[in-house]
Amino acid sequence: MPQVVSIQFQPVTKLYYFDPGPFTDLLPGEWVLVETARGKELAQVVLPAKEVDEGELEGPLKRILRRASKYDLDQKAYWAKQAEAAMPVCQEKANAHGLKMRVVRCIYSYNGERLTVEFVAEHRVDFRALVRDLARHFSTRIEMRQIGVRDQAKVVGDYGRCGRSLCCRSFLREFHSVSIRMAKNQNIPLSSSDISGVCGRLMCSLAYENDMYAAARKHLPKVGQKVLTPDGPGVVRYLNVLLGKVSVYLESGAMKEFDAPDLSLPGHPERVYRMPEF
Questions:
Q1: What is the overall mean pLDDT for the chain?
Q2: 10 Å Cβ neighbour count for 66?
Q3: Which residues 6+ apart lie within 8 Å of 97 measured at CB?
Q4: 73-147 in CATH: which number?
Q5: CA nearest 118: which of 266, 60, 127?
Q6: pLDDT single digits (tens) 124-168
Q7: Would you identify the CATH topology of the domain 213-278?
Q8: How far is residue 145's CA from residue 101's CA, in Å, rounded to a whole number?
C-alpha cells in the first residue's frame, strides 16, 4: 500500500495526500516544500506518514520536495505581512474600476511570486482590467478567486449563537451539503434566525446529528398519522425523537404524551413502535 503524509495549505482547510519520499519521519506541525499545479508551495504537515488503500487516492501522488528551511519560513512571514497591506489597495482599485466586489483576503505565495486575491460578489465579475492594474502595481502574477459567503465566514471568522468560534473556522475542514429536511428531522423551528449561520446560509451544525435523528424517526410514527393508544385512537401531533415520546391528540379532545412502544397502527395492533437507540 502507498505511504502518504496529510498536509494543509491554509489552517483548517482540506487535507491533501503527498508522497513523503525519504521524509517518512515528518511530524505534525512541520513545514515542507511541495510541488503543486500552481508551482512550489509551503504546506504544513497535519498527519504523519501512514499507509492507505489505493482506492483512497484521487490520482498520482505528488512528492514532498524537502523540509522548509528557516529562510523559507522567514520569506513566508514577510509575504504574509505584505498580503495584509495589499488588501486595502486591491479593494480601492476594484472600486476605481467600478466592480461590485468585496476583497476578503490576499495571499502571497511563500516567495512572493504570486498574489491571489479572494473576493465575494453577487454575480460574475469581469476583472481582466483590474488584474492588469494590480499586476503593474505589485509587479507580480495576480490570480483572482471568487469565493462564496460560507468561505468568507471561514476566512473572516466570527462567533456562533453557541458563543464559540465558528465551526468552519475552528475545526470544519470542508463544507458539506445542508438542507431544510435536516432541520425538520430535528424539530428545529424553520424561521431564518433559528437555522441560519452568520454567513446567511443554513448552519453547518444541522448536519452533525441528522443521521441519528433520521434513523430514530424510522422507529416512530409520523406527525399527522392516526395511531392507537392505551387511551384510545388519536392523531400524532409532536415527536420528541431523543426521548422516544409521542404527543397524541385523542378523540376525547385531550392531548397526551406516550412512549413509542405503547402505540400501534389502527388495524395492525401487533405493530409496536420502538424506542430510538443511541
A1: 92
A2: 13
A3: 127, 129, 130, 133
A4: 3.30.300.20
A5: 127
A6: 999 999 999 999 999 999 999 999 999 999 999 999 988 999 999
A7: SH3 type barrels. (2.30.30)
A8: 11
Q: 8: which 3 cell numbers?
A: 494543509
Query: Domain extents for the chain?
Result: 3-68, 73-147, 153-208, 213-278
- For 1, the grid coordinates are 500500500
Burial class (CB in 10 A: 0-12, 13-18, 19+), 139: exposed
CA 189 to chain centre: 22
Phi, psi of 223 (to 5 degrees): -65, 130
| C-alpha grid cell, residue 266 | 389502527
Residue 278 has pLDDT above 70, yes or no: no
**For residue 103, what is its C-alpha cell?**
476583497
Could you please report the per-residue DSSP string of the chain? Answer: --EEEEEESSTT---EEEB-TT-TT--TT-EEEEEETTEEEEEEEEEEEEE--GGG-SSPPPBEEEEPPHHHHHHHHHHHHHHHHHHHHHHHHHHHTT---EEEEEEE-TTSSEEEEEEE-SS----HHHHHHHHHHH-SEEEEEE--HHHHHHHH--B-TTSSB-HHHHT--S-----HHHHHHTT----HHHHB-TTSSBPGGGGTTHHHHHHHHTTSPPTT-EEEETTEEEEEEEEETTTTEEEEEETTS-EEEEEGGG-BBTTBTT--------
Phi-psi group of 251: left, alpha or beta (phi > 0 → left; psi -120 to 50 → alpha; rest → beta)? alpha
